[in-house]
Amino acid sequence: MMKTVKEGMVTIKIPSFDKVSSKAPVFYNPNMELNRDISVLAIQQFQKEKKSRIKIADIFAGSGIRGIRYHVEIGGVESVLANDINPLAVEFIEKNSKLNNAHVDITMEDANILLRKNRGVFDVVDIDPFGTPSPFIESAGYSLKKGSLLCVTATDTSSLCGTYKKPCIRKYNAVPLKTEYCHENGLRILAGFTSLTLAKYKKYIKVRLAYSSQHYMRLYLEIGKGAAKTDKSLKNNIGFIYHCHNCLSRSLEYGMLPILPLECPQCGGKTDFSGPLWIGELEDENFIKGMIRLLPEKRLNKKGETLKLLKLLEGESGMPPTFYDIHKICSKMGISAPPLKKIMEKLQEKGFKATRSHCKATGIKTNAPIIELKKSIKSIHNLTCHGCNNIVGPPHF
Ligand SMILES: C[S@@+](CC[C@H](N)C(=O)[O-])C[C@H]1O[C@@H](n2cnc3c(N)ncnc32)[C@H](O)[C@@H]1O
Ligand SMILES: [Zn+2]
């Protein structure tokens, strides 16, 4: 039995399956359509900036839908290589390429071998494996050329988010942190690990776009080259996040070792830490603006969702790492949560930056310290609440 799928401008066929699983004869996940839609826009924007024709490698191609979409939907493409280790997947990539009249190059190799054999060939490498991309980053570091784009998906979010600490240390050589901003933290661990892995090849990353959605994380990294620039990139972007579970304050430390005393500077409580991770920029405002401008000319089923996400990510550029969960803070303060918009306005009135986080609907990113945020929340609460001032007791800050 066959199943027909329509996404973007392509139609593909795959063997029927009961549920999305790595055990399916040929893997296809309809929930990743947004991932593929955003990839089409991001790679198109990259190609536009490059002003030359690009060679793309979709090295975990599955049914071929991703690579075929890149071939059909992205302008200025010189070639697309679709690779998979599964022989049945390769058969379907061949069928689906013909079905869409897309002249895709097809290989059946282990992704690491393919990257090693094609050093300096591709302008875009897309790594979309089952679970962790960690075993493939080293070969990507060897293979990628200056000015190329590395697109990485990770679906092992429980490791990156710190539900399980040991697998994160094993796969990403970093200590995770189970907090309200654990998804952003996970993106930072993945970017930090990639940056440190590439460094031995005197290559560094510039994060053009990073987001977490549903069950996966996705990074778009532009590759730079040169020993001095790599050293500088590590110095300016790798470090640690410290988090106080008591008063919810955070701080950053640049470097390869956690050296701050593990005591909260705000309340004296014990702090937890995460890292080494990427504490530099995760969003490139101009890149995202470019992607938004490209939206009207693309045929995407998830256009609305894509725009909403890109707008949130655009707002996050230039903001410091981590965000505050207003519900968590208010529950600690013993008051009901005021609307997010009002809190952001209050912070902005006081001269702080404030924006929403794409990771959490109740999250606010701000450069205000926790004490200022709590003061702002309290003042809005006092203006609007006439019933509970006497029962909440003294403010908790
Ligand atoms: C998550 S699926 C890819 C989905 C596809 N990119 C898409 O958007 O629909 C991962 C694919 O990687 C293939 N694979 C697993 N290990 C591999 C390896 N070492 N080298 C190449 N392909 C591999 C699997 O057969 C599977 O088709
Ligand atoms: Zn504290």
UniProtKB/TrEMBL annotation:
Catalysis performed (reactions): guanosine(26) in tRNA + 2 S-adenosyl-L-methionine = N(2)-dimethylguanosine(26) in tRNA + 2 S-adenosyl-L-homocysteine + 2 H(+)
Purpose of the protein: Dimethylates a single guanine residue at position 26 of a number of tRNAs using S-adenosyl-L-methionine as donor of the methyl groups.
The protein, known as: tRNA (guanine(26)-N(2))-dimethyltransferase
Cited InterPro entries: SAM-dependent_MTases_sf, Trm1, TRM1_arc_bac, tRNA_met_Trm1_C
Keyword terms of this UniProt record: Metal-binding, Methyltransferase, RNA-binding, S-adenosyl-L-methionine, Transferase, tRNA processing, tRNA-binding, Zinc
Entry binding sites for Zn(2+): 244, 247, 264, 267
EC numbers: 2.1.1.216
NCBIfam families: TRM1
Binding site for S-adenosyl-L-methionine: 36, 66, 84, 110-111
Enzyme class: transferase
Biological source species: Methanothermobacter tenebrarum
Family recorded in the similarity comment: Belongs to the class I-like SAM-binding methyltransferase superfamily. Trm1 family.
Keyword tRNA processing: yes
